[in-house]
Protein 1
Amino acid sequence: MNMYKNFSVFKRNAFLFFSIIILLISCSDGEDGINGGNGLNSLIETTGEPTGVNCENGGVKIDSGLDANLNGTLESNEITSTEYVCNDEKLYRTYAALLTQNDENNPIETILLNELNISIDWVRLDQGEYQGTLSEPIDEKTTLIFQVKDENILSTSEFFDSMTILLHNRVRTNLYQPVDGFENAVLEIKKYN
């Protein structure tokens, strides 16, 4: 019985051995074909993409194609693909203006940037007290900065409510004394997304 078992193992191994030899003999690589011509190099060119139709917040433009004239530069007629990698959405939108006020006049603003698409109507309430009424409400995710360039004036600002800004000017050496008059004071509102 033991001899029969050994013979079976021998038969199986011999079959595998001869099968492998037959496969190796029948798998020659054949004759080589005719060499082809050299291929063209692929080229990629990246350029900054300004804010606009392709990228709302700017980004990078990636042009690619084959160097058909072999000069190593991607020419406009060689571009076969254009992709854009755009910057993420801005974290905030800004309203920036310069405010000027004198005597008993209402503050006058010069808008520098208005990404919030709002308007503000300014009124002098009393000496050193001014109110701005917004055309649209602003929610809590907003910062307000008001800075007067006169070192003798201390200025503060606040949102009274979602549509009202209050500005307060005091004499720096006497905080109980309101004062009028400032030129090109900076007002900045940032609304975070």
Protein 2
Amino acid sequence: MSISDIYYFLWHFEFDIILKPFLLSIVSIEKLTLAKYNPYTEKVEDVKQASPFAGNNFGKMGLIVGLGGSTSLFLAFMVAYLYSKPNWTWTLLSFPKLFLVSAVVLVLSSFSIRQIPKAFAADDAPRMKKMFIYTIVLTSIFVVTQIMGWGELISENIVIGGKPDGSYLYIISGIHALHVVGGLIPLLIFYFSFKKIQANPVNSLLYFSKPGELAKLKMLEIYWHFVDIVWLIILLFFLFNHL
């Protein structure tokens, strides 16, 4: 199997099995939640405190399938790495320091995205906008540091088609970067939608009464914490195996 075949397989596995269920669940959760919402029998405040999965089996299953597929994929590559490592006789690569910086940045973005649903529940539009911007900026910095980290590997003549330890690092970190970009897409959609709504005072007031909106934001938050934890595990895994 060639490198291009591997890329093709990873992309289709990543999108069809992992990102697509997550993105579809994010898109559809508002419609499904609103279908169960009765303004004559339920208070908006009660709906806001509900679980992001309440009354939304499709959204729940989409998220579970996506995160389950992601976990299986990362575990498979880590097991393959450990299985192959005893046969390696060369000096293992030095881990890019920029990947440590990207970990700190991603942890900070995980904190900022946690504040978005809180601001929504408090009807705090200025804080919500600020946290959106912080998360988008931090995520962009993460992507840039990842690219710079790969550049650091290339400068040391470590390429994806070279020794297996470098190839595993490229593939695992690349798949994780795709997860981050996959979360950045709905984040940007939510932000620009929020920004457009806030330009109209009437729509701005109605926005915070939409029960499905908070559910979507909470699902995105859960996904974000997942990719954050996964990256920390990946860092510890490679650091431990390259000491």
